């Protein structure tokens, strides 16, 4: 059959879904500048493909412009079409950033951090997911048997990650039923979020070719454990030296890192709405599921929102040293989740916030988190009023659609999407 190569350019807006438009590969040079057409209201498409309300109506035109650094072109060598796509920026027709461009939200946060502190953020996303290609068996957690029974998924996936420019770090069978986890190497802020999206899509693409699915939904079974997204971060100064660690501090954190962490904890209720944005995210965030339950910073405690990860003795402790934000899941756009962390952390630095001694419970529902986001004037400044209002409208519409469903029914609905 005659075939012609196609390329997609994609964004990952408030729903956390990766959407975009395709074009013939031969048109790439012109598409690099003119992009593809996009519609403001697309940002309001929720997890269930509905637009319960929109501030943008049916009007307006945007362009989605590919970023050349994100090109992903992976041949699975099985005769299937290449996974060839770019991630891009949402702009007005005159080229200026659109108020809801998720990459711009993150880029602005990283720029502000750099301008005000001289720091660059390194981040690595750790993803958990449910693989439908294995049967559920008791005794699975972390087992060699569960690792083996995923067949060739892991090998094909790791190869795809590497070909996509995401250096794979690890792959394992996790605690939950049919649950697996992978990590890719850290990268500078924007690239780290791009990688998170690319890596998840490689998992979906691999599973799809094997006739299965990689489900990143926050939780599958209300009685089980959830699929978290843990965002590891650290800072580098202008010389590229790590500046997160201070051996003199009892937690090992430099003063800047302490303020940054304190900013996150201070804004944690509002941050939840941005990093754990599904109704079922709050089923995951319950006690005794290895998921975080309190807005606290702890050394090596998995129930804490912020966990200081272990380091191994040796000369490179400062380089290994990183903090993990555990409250995210894959219903959140990685751009929005990381932007929220950076803005809140920067707010902690700006206000020299101390690490709180008390760790209040996280919001118990998405509605509570959205109320906290609405009341948070700093978050409205970071996002801009248009984005802030649209975000609340989007998620409240989604939450309203879930109110008459049981927890198991909600999990089933979200599993169809994520
Ligand atoms: N599955 C847990 C979560 O939902 C995390 C388990 C772990 O610590 O890796 O965040
Ligand atoms: Mg894990």
Write the layout of secondary structure elements.
Blueprint: E1 6-12, E2 18-24, H1 28-34, E3 36-38, E4 62-66, E5 72-74, E6 83-91, H2 102-117, E7 120-131, H3 144-149, H4 153-163, E8 168-173, E9 179-184, E10 187-188, H5 189-209, E11 214-215, E12 229-236, H6 255-266, H7 268-275, H8 281-284, E13 294-299, E14 304-308, H9 317-320, E15 323-328, H10 334-350, H11 366-375, H12 377-383, H13 385-402, H14 407-417
Parallel strand pairs: 1-6, 13-14
Antiparallel strand pairs: 1-2, 3-4, 4-6, 5-6, 7-9, 7-10, 7-11, 7-12, 8-9, 12-15, 14-15
Helix pairs in contact: 2-10, 4-5, 6-10, 7-10, 7-11, 11-13, 12-13
The structure holds glutamic acid and magnesium ion.
